[in-house]
């Protein structure tokens, strides 16, 4: 990974960062650690900027160390983030657990279709005026038109049913 105990220009070392990351208790703390170490103004970013001031042979060596440190920190952050998200999901599911053995909620009664409501209103008006509502099939067929009227059998308008 990277050299043990290698210190950054600020005096902090990577192992301390890895320990802090593994001990983060929530996503906000983890994100603040990520910004502190890997952000635009972060410690590791500042160390990368100072690489340009070093001689070529030392720059190569320090570059490898810093890249390995960055990869280790990113990996530790990703692992801890996945762990914290799993814990949050588990807590959320425990809070919202549903007992499926309990009786369900009443769906309530429905309501009439708007056209049915209009039909009932019109029927009420006509009933108040003295008319009666006759009910019957909504589609007429030959039997109802011809046979039930009892035309004589020899007529041309007889039932063919």
UniProtKB/TrEMBL annotation:
One of its GO terms (cellular component) is cytoplasm. Signal peptide: none annotated. Coiled coil: none annotated. InterPro entries: aa-tRNA-synth_II/BPL/LPL (IPR045864), Phe-tRNA_ligase_II_N (IPR004188), Phenylalanyl-tRNA_Synthase (IPR002319), tRNA-bd_arm (IPR010978). Residues 98-144 form the Phenylalanyl-tRNA synthetase domain. Keywords: Aminoacyl-tRNA synthetase, ATP-binding, Ligase, Nucleotide-binding, Protein biosynthesis. It holds the Pfam family Phe_tRNA-synt_N. Residues 25-93 form the Phenylalanine-tRNA ligase class II N-terminal domain. The keyword Ligase applies. GO terms for molecular function: ATP binding; phenylalanine-tRNA ligase activity; tRNA binding. GO terms for biological process: phenylalanyl-tRNA aminoacylation. This is Phenylalanyl-tRNA synthetase, alpha subunit.
């Amino acid at each position: 990974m990277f050299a043990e105990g290698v210190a950054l220009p600020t005096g902090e070392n990577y192992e301390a960062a890895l320990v802090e990351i593994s001990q983060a208790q929530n996503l906000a703390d983890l994100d603040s650690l990520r910004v502190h170490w890997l952000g635009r103004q972060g410690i590791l970013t500042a160390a990368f900027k100072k690489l340009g001031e070093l001689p070529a042979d030392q720059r190569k060596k320090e570059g490898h160390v810093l890249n390995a440190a960055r990869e280790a920190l990113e990996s530790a952050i990703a692992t801890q983030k996945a762990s914290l998200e799993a814990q949050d999901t588990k807590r959320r599911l425990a809070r919202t657990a549903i007992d499926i053995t309990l009786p369900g909620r009443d769906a309530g009664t429905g309501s009439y279709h708007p056209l049915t409501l209009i039909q009932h209103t019109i029927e009420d008006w006509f009933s108040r005026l003295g008319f009666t509502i006759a009910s019957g099939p909504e589609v007429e067929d030959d039997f109802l038109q011809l046979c039930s009227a009892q035309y004589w059998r020899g007529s041309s308008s007889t039932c063919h049913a």
